[in-house]
Amino acid sequence: MRTEKEMMAVIFDVANKDERIRAVTLEGSRTNPNAPKDMFQDYDISFLVTEMDSFIRNPDWIDVFGERIIMQTPEAMAMFPPDLGRRFSYMMQFTDGTRIDLTLIPLDERMEYCKEDKLLIVLLDKDGCLPEIAPPTDEDYWVKRPSAEFFADCCNEFWWVSTYVAKGLWRRELLFAQDHLNNYVRPMLLKMIEWQVGIQTDFSVSIGKNGKYLEKRLSAQSWQRLLSTYADGSYDGMWRALFAAGELFRDTAKFVGEHLQYEYPEQDDRRVTEYLKLVQSLPSDATRIYPS
User: Fold this and answer.
1) Which of 13, 66, 119, 248 could in theory staple to 94 by disulfide, Cβ–Cβ 3.0 to 4.6 A?
2) How far is Cα 39 from Cα 97, in angstroms, rounded to an integer?
3) Per residue, what are the HEC states of 147-168?
4) Tally of CA atoms within 13 A in the half-sphere of 109 that contains its CB
5) Is the confidence at residue 114, as pLDDT, over 90?
6) What is the pLDDT of residues 261-276, one digit of tens each?
7) Which run of H or E residues covers position 14?
8) Whether residue 93 has pLDDT greater than 90
9) Among the residues of 89-147, which ranges form H helices?
10) What pLDDT, in 10s, does the model give residues 180-216?
11) Is the Cα torsion angle 72, 78, 84, 87 positive or negative in sign?
12) Number of CB atoms found within 10 A of residue 19's CB
């Protein structure tokens, strides 16, 4: 596996030899002083270039970076619409274990680009065309204090969509239920836990992409409670996960509400929880949710 020094030597060599490349930057976890270092860290590299077309027309130009296991070019894919505007990226996993996420950026976007992320280091600026960049910081990714409206909406979404999960479980539509638990209910639970961490740290830390640093911020007991909300492939397991999520959300939201002086919707919680238990108890041939 190539060392960071070796990888940087390749990147600099490519950039210095190509007159189209006027500046090179590094972003992401390798510039983040608070990110743990390991062998899986990507090299998030950007080349600021005078023109794009010649690069894109000749896809073989990236072979100089090494033998690849696989590559993805998101802006050239039909299934996933591009969202980088005029920019173009090459995400490359190499056979030696290293990975580069390389983005080409039109040089005339340099001022806008340099304001987009505070985790940015300039590696090369041939013409001195980039603005002065402050030392990298992850403060843009710190947990943000929620407004009362955000708190209320989070609570409402959690309890509202929980009823969809119950409906799917009674209908024996496991994928429907799993989808609503994992894609709608869970994000609200994680958001509430994120706010709890924010309160406990004076809103001065990041929990990382997809909450990857969350385990380090929770007690062992709280972490196990969170893990209990992840269901197995059974209907009984799904019901257990749903109720475990409700209990953890309730406790966490009350903590957040008390500290931020926001009102927790006790009535929504009570009514929905009773409804979930009722749906769980319904026989498979039921024709009414409530008895007449």
Assistant:
1) 66
2) 8
3) CHHHHHHHHHHHHHHHHHHHHH
4) 17
5) yes
6) 999 999 999 999 999 9
7) helix 4-17
8) yes
9) 110-113
10) 999 999 999 999 999 999 999 999 999 998 999 999 9
11) positive
12) 9
What is the residue type of 212? K
The per-residue pLDDT of the chain, averaged, comes to 95
Question: Taking 80 as the threshold, does the pLDDT of residue 234 lie above it?
Answer: yes
What fold, for 4-140? Beta Polymerase; domain 2 (3.30.460)
Contact 217, 207 (CB under 8 A): yes
What are the residue ranges spanned by the domains of the chain?
4-140, 142-281
What CATH number does the domain located at 142-281 have? 1.20.120.330
Tokens of 150: 């955000």
Q: Compute the distance between CA of residue 100 and CA of residue 92 in angstroms, rounded to an integer.
A: 5
Distance CA 44, CA 97 (A): 15
**Sequence-ordered list of residues with C-beta below 8 angstroms from that of 193, at least 6 positions apart, any chain:** 211, 214, 218, 222, 226, 248, 252
